[in-house]
Structures are given as structure tokens and as C-alpha cells.
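pls design
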């Protein structure tokens, strides 16, 4: 494991998550680091907006980054939500102000998904690295 950090369930968690990932993964190729930071920003932002982590005054989010042979696996663990689940919005040509973030996650990662670990939810992705 490269590292893990606990973050507040507030908007400040997004730049804190980026700064942490940059510190522990700064040696990555620039394009891979940019992709990593963008996807982390999206998922941490979603945790703040759509989970109990962002609704509770003491809400927490955990960011975990693990390195495997030629990939990083990143987990964003929040305090779950009974009112929403992570899902891709249909690409119907409609211009939207929101709701396109998981499409970005889908494009930039080799794989992503989510699962419940009651009472928490984990959204994860794999980011391939070139040898």
C-alpha cells in the first residue's frame, strides 16, 4: 500500500486528497498523474455531495492508494447513502451542468466500480501504469 488518509466530509477534502495523492505518487508520468488527480477529485467530490459523509457534521472520507505490478488501485470510502448509488448518466446528447463525472472516471481508468461495506460505501478504480 502506498498510503491512506482520512479526510473531512466537506469540500476541503477534494484539494486535500489531490495534495496527498500528488505527494505519494508524484513520480508518475505527468499524464498519468493528471488522470489520477482528476479521478480522485471526482470521486471525493461525489462522496462529499452524495453520501452521509457530506451530510454529517463529523462526516469522514478515507482515500486509500495501493500499487500493484503495473497499476494503482484507489479506494474512496464514504459513510454510504440510502438515497443514491454511483451510476453513469446516459449519453443522450443532453447538455448537463452535472452528472458527467463518472463518464470521466470510465474513460480515464482501466476499471472502476463500487460496493457496500455497511455502513460504508467504497468506490474504487484501477489506473494502469506503463512499465
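designed seq:
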Amino acid at each position: 500500500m502506498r498510503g491512506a488518509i482520512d479526510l473531512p466530509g466537506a469540500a476541503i477534502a477534494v484539494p486535500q486528497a489531490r495534495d496527498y495523492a500528488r505527494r505519494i505518487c508524484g513520480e508518475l508520468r505527468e499524464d498519468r498523474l493528471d488522470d489520477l488527480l482528476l479521478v480522485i477529485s471526482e470521486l471525493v467530490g461525489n462522496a462529499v455531495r452524495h453520501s452521509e459523509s457530506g451530510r454529517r457534521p463529523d462526516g469522514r472520507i478515507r482515500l486509500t492508494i495501493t500499487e500493484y505490478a503495473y497499476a494503482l488501485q484507489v479506494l474512496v470510502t464514504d459513510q454510504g447513502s440510502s438515497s443514491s448509488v454511483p451510476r453513469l448518466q446516459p449519453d443522450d446528447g443532453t447538455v448537463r451542468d452535472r452528472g458527467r463525472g463518472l463518464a470521466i472516471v470510465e474513460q480515464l481508468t482501466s476499471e472502476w466500480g463500487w460496493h457496500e461495506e455497511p455502513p460504508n460505501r467504497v468506490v474504487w478504480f484501477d489506473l494502469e501504469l506503463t512499465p
